[in-house]
Design goal:
about 0% strand; elongated
Length: about 150
């Protein structure tokens, strides 16, 4: 039977897949870009590589936060302060990527689209973080009530 725990476990497996995918992309980014953009100028490939590697720490951090958040959910620790922290860090990772892509957009225009997407994702995560923080406060108050 499909439950929210099954979904959380599946999402955690998918997160592990993205850990592996990011590692492979970090190792093979240059050959992949040279194959895909073989006709492009060297400056374009350099801009993409620099931006990609600049955003990699934020991606690793985001994946770790997602994994820990899902682990807490699987362990039935949903409305806890740590989860609010993980969502806050996730939103800042998106903000970092948005700024990095915004700057890179001046050198390779399609990065403006990535910047907009990352900024929108940051906005969604901030709203969800605020909802989670409010729910956590309500839960904590209810636990103190006799």
């Amino acid at each position: 039977m499909y439950t929210s725990m099954t979904s959380a476990k599946l999402t955690r497996v998918i997160t592990c897949f993205f850990f592996a995918l990011l590692l492979v992309l970090m190792i093979f980014a240059s050959p992949i870009l040279n194959w895909f953009f073989g006709f492009a100028r060297d400056n374009t490939i350099k801009t993409i590589l620099i931006t990609f590697y600049l955003c990699c720490p934020a991606a690793w951090c985001a994946l770790v936060c997602i994994f820990k958040l899902l682990t807490n959910i699987i362990n039935e620790k949903v409305f806890v302060v740590k989860n609010v922290l993980y969502m806050r860090v996730l939103s800042w990772c998106c903000a970092f990527v948005a700024v990095a892509c915004l700057v890179a957009g001046f050198f390779y225009v399609p990065f403006f689209i990535f910047s907009l997407g990352a900024a929108f994702m940051m906005l969604i995560l901030r709203v969800l973080k605020n909802v989670m923080a409010a729910a956590t406060e309500i839960k904590d108050e209810n636990e103190l009530t006799i």
